[in-house]
Amino acid sequence: MSENVKETLGFQAEVKQLLHLMIHSLYSHKEIFVRELCSNAADAADKLRFEALNDGALYEDQPELKIWISADKEAKTLTIRDNGIGMNRQEVIEHIGTIAKSGTKEFFGKLTGDQQKDAQLIGQFGVGFYSSFIVADKVTLTTRRAGLTQEHGVRWESEGSGEYSLETVDKDSRGTEIVLHMKEGETEFLEEWRIKAVIRQYSDHIAIPIVFVNDKGEEETVNKANALWARSKNDITEEEYKAFYQHVGHDYEDPLAWIHARVEGRQDYTVLLYVPAHAPFDLWDREAKTGVKLYVKRVFIMEDARKLMPAYLRFMRGVIDAADLPLNVSREILQQTKDMEMIRAGCVKKALDLLDDLAENRRDDYAKVWENFGEVLKEGVGEDHANKDRIAGLCRFRSTASDEPTVSLADYIGRMKEGQDKVYYVTADSLAAAKSSPHLEIFRKKGIEVLLLTDRVDEWLVSHLFEFDGKSLASVAKGDLDLSAVKSEAADQAEEEAPKAEEAKALVERIQEALKDEVKEVRVSSRLVDSPACLVAGEHDMSGHLARMLKAMGQNAPAEKPILEVNVGHALVKRLDGEAGERFGELAKLVLDQAVLLDGGQLADPAGFVKRMNALLGA
Ligand SMILES: Nc1ncnc2c1ncn2[C@@H]1O[C@H](COP(=O)(O)OP(=O)(O)OP(=O)(O)O)[C@@H](O)[C@H]1O
Q: What is the pTM of this model?
């Protein structure tokens, strides 16, 4: 098809769904379309400025970047125009008519049909350009990309019901013009005072002028039109900070907290970072782009969360504006310079300062941060060597003393028993499995707190964090356990009652002989109270839990045989002592199978287990 012919294209299915939902559920916030369109126009100006660093001709005869808004009461249209980067035909098809966001499918899966809840979700997802259809029954977007000649304009038009038309048109000015044909009853947005009020409320922070053009053609700049982050902290209201967040964060909700600082030194820069109040849809996409924007002397340079913030802080939003970097530096070089590294390190420090402050002074808010981003933050313990201890200090865990993930390592250490010198933890697939781990029995008895680690990232965390504040971290399921120094009356008594390892030596050797193909070693346990046996990994071996996790991810885990620890005080084990021959072997196997199950593992021979079990039950 020739490019000049008007063609009709269908919206991607998700767009249709989004439009429908949005029109119905965001109706009570219909004025947000002004914010969304101004926000896009400002981004387009940023992009143009960046491209023009290498090609000044892109400015044509219009170096001053602006947004113009005008209303035509007779035609019932509202027009929002910018002289930013514009779009070519392909970009229009890709950006307007498709949703290219990661997490789109998951997002639609979460919708409930309940308007209020969905409205909130849609807000989080970002409504962008499509919000025009809340107030308009037809939208005409005409655009020309900077650098293309005037016959390469593109006109996109839609009634928001399922399809749009596209044609090539002449457009003499660069940038994008959006004409909203207002719905019957939405004419309030054609009133000058109403438009101005909405701009002041939502778009005051936009760094380029938003100009209202009245019906006589007179122009008036409505917003403050300077970069918010460059202003003095004292002159910025809370509302302004929030509104700016919604723009940079592409979020509909208020942020939870922010930090705004000017750093002076070898590199001068300003940083304004926000912690969102909820997780973005692409939190688990480590390649996701949105995040922190880099400006050099107010000129937008790049938006690449990973270069400006480490992956474990990818939920942070905001801007960094460097005063001393050369403007004409390419993105590639920028990413490697020492100066950039310094700035990045400084910004990470600011981000951690903000989180520390929340953790210390706004505990309820920090609990939300942890709920949303805790798993991501934990990645930092292994990723950011320089800040490992600070990040570990920010981590919160569940423990045998708390079902909520509120226990910090410092809290734990503060509660350690007299004589206890380690921070103990258990790793498992679920809280229930962690809590019922046989390895915890002696800890319960002695009243020693154990951290319950059930996130996927926890094994990674403990493989990088060996100690905190001088106390080493130890798995309750690994190596030898010696709690004899820990004072506890109940347990001391129990220890005296338990038969000594010496007495059980012969039995242990017999079990070991019977299970020699399956286990590395059999030994008397000092961990067990109620269970007959448990599996233990060698001090330096991989835990059974990690081995299973790796296997589930399709990776090869070294096939280390476990150590079987038996509770020689347990009736089943005592009974073994009186058995011999084949029956002894069967019972020993049963003890091992139970330990495998309690460890969260799978039996190699479930049928054999059932048979042995039934034989024991006399069935
Ligand atoms: N005025 C404009 N000038 C140039 N490109 C634009 C303009 N408006 C929209 N676009 C392009 O269309 C894309 C989609 O815009 P849309 O508002 O739907 O989403 P967004 O801004 O990317 O994200 P969000 O909806 O989360 O704010 C933009 O990313 C941009 O590439």
A: 0.80
